[in-house]
């Protein structure tokens, strides 16, 4: 390790101001910071404002995301292996690609009852998406750092992990690269970089893909990493998410199946019917975006973020209260033409990306409200908007993404009114 330290110290003058590689200083600084703790020590009088620095904050978010990453790999493989088994039982021929070539080379099979088969097969889908995301997004960060002459911020470590977790497993890798570059550049860098963006970069990237390439990020053929051969052509495995299924239900189907919630026991897939229960949704053993299916994994992440003071419990509670309030109202009012009104409030918490968005996206300290009172209003607005989008507009069954971006836009305004109200109260107090 001493050799590495000495090598980096010898290279430093090349990248320092006036050196031959001055323009590449952000790249050198990123490698040095990643390998070693900065050796500078503050001298004289210092002003300590907080025990948390950016690096520690981002590291804790990554730690909190570990349960979701595990589920992204295991559940992606589990759903794929279940689908492959169903395809074979239906008398169809599975279509395999390079993912299966790697899996087979490791001597593994497609047994959904095998923990290792599921974990490794899912990892073969998740890791390439993550690597492409980090490479393309990291290059975007590097270019802006070189142009502006500042260090690469640690903020992208979190954005680069959040974004892949919100994607379906079969998404083309070139779309991952385009999406994350859009999120980094348009969602953050053009506003000045980390700490100056008013939109969540990961959600900006996902929203871009959602509207630009809807065919690869929505519908019922993108959530399970399995394909099959029919009439000589390769087709995707059909299997809607619980939220997607509820969003496309027709009143006639509801009458035939009993109720909207009972219809979740009969979700049509290529290999037959699939059943979704509240508990399977809570655990995350259902199709969906790779890292968003498990409310339990998100709950573990929430405990870590709240215990370490990183995530705001006020925002999380505000989102839940706002969602529960409007969902309860719609559930009580009911509707004969819109099956989404029949979804009980406690179901909204475990389907779609509600839990993931509440814990990891809405609490982004840069794009969320700063004031303590404002966090309640900000969270409540996101929660209510999520249910409103889900129930009123069936074209967007997943509402949390758009709701958080909507909340990001209104966060400065919420803080402004909270501060003004505080100033007004203090003025009245002293006037009295």
From TrEMBL:
The chain crosses the membrane at residues 57-74, 119-139, 151-167, 286-308, 315-334, 346-364, 376-393, 399-419. One of its GO terms (cellular component) is plasma membrane. It comes from the Bacteria. The keyword Oxidoreductase applies. The keyword DNA-binding does not apply. Its EC number is 7.2.1.1. It is a multi-pass membrane protein. One of its GO terms (molecular function) is FMN binding. Its main location: membrane. Its cofactor is FMN. It catalyses: a ubiquinone + n Na(+)(in) + NADH + H(+) = a ubiquinol + n Na(+)(out) + NAD(+). It is an enzyme of class 7 (translocase). The modification FMN phosphoryl threonine is found at residue 241. GO terms for biological process: respiratory electron transport chain; sodium ion transport; transmembrane transport. It is found in: Cell membrane. Keywords: Cell inner membrane, Cell membrane, Flavoprotein, FMN, Ion transport, Membrane, NAD, Oxidoreductase, Phosphoprotein, Sodium, Sodium transport, Translocase, Transmembrane, Transmembrane helix, Transport, Ubiquinone. NCBIfam families: nqrB, PRK05349.1. PANTHER family: ELECTRON TRANSPORT COMPLEX PROTEIN RNFD (PTHR30578), NA(+)-TRANSLOCATING NADH-QUINONE REDUCTASE SUBUNIT B (PTHR30578:SF1). Belongs to the NqrB/RnfD family. Composed of six subunits; NqrA, NqrB, NqrC, NqrD, NqrE and NqrF. NQR complex catalyzes the reduction of ubiquinone-1 to ubiquinol by two successive reactions, coupled with the transport of Na(+) ions from the cytoplasm to the periplasm. NqrA to NqrE are probably involved in the second step, the conversion of ubisemiquinone to ubiquinol. This is Na(+)-translocating NADH-quinone reductase subunit B. It comes from Aureliella helgolandensis.
């Amino acid at each position: 390790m001493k050799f590495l330290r000495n090598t980096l110290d010898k290279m430093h003058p090349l990248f320092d101001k006036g050196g031959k590689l001055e323009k590449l200083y952000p790249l050198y600084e990123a490698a040095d910071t990643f390998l070693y703790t900065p050796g500078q020590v503050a001298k004289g009088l210092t002003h300590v404002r907080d025990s948390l620095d950016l690096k520690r904050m981002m590291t804790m978010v990554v730690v909190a995301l570990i349960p979701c990453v595990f589920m992204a790999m295991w559940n992606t493989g589990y759903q794929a292996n279940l689908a492959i088994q169903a395809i074979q039982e239906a008398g169809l021929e599975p279509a395999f690609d390079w993912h299966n070539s790697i899996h087979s080379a490791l001597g593994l099979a497609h047994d959904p009852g095998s923990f290792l088969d599921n974990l490794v097969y899912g990892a073969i889908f998740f890791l390439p998406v993550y690597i492409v995301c980090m490479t393309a997004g990291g290059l975007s960060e590097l270019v802006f750092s070189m142009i502006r002459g500042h260090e690469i911020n640690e903020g992208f470590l979190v954005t680069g992990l959040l974004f892949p977790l919100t994607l379906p497993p079969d998404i083309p890798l070139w779309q991952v690269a385009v999406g994350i570059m859009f999120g980094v550049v348009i969602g953050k860098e053009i506003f000045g970089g980390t700490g100056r963006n008013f939109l969540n970069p990961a959600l900006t990237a996902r929203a871009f893909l959602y509207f630009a390439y809807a065919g690869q990020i929505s519908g019922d053929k993108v959530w399970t990493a399995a394909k099959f051969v029919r009439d000589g052509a390769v087709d995707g495995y059909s299997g809607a998410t619980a939220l997607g299924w509820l969003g496309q239900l027709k009143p006639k189907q509801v009458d035939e199946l009993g109720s909207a919630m009972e219809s979740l026991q009969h979700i049509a897939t290529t290999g037959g019917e699939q059943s979704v229960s509240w508990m399977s949704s809570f655990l995350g053993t259902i199709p969906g975006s790779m890292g968003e299916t498990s409310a339990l994994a998100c709950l573990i992440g929430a405990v870590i973020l709240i215990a370490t003071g990183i995530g705001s419990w006020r925002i999380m509670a505000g989102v839940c209260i706002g969602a529960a309030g409007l969902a309860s109202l719609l559930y009580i009012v009911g509707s004969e033409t819109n099956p989404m009104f029949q979804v009980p409030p406690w179901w909204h918490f475990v389907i779609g990306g509600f839990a993931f968005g509440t814990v990891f996206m809405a609490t982004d300290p840069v794009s969320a409200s700063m004031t303590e009172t404002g966090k309640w209003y900000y969270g409540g607005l996101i929660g209510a908007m999520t249910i409103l989008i889900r129930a009123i507009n069936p074209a967007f069954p997943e509402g949390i993404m758009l709701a958080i971006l909507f909340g990001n836009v209104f966060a400065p305004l919420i803080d402004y009114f909270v501060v003004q109200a505080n100033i007004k109260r203090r003025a009245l107090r002293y006037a009295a």
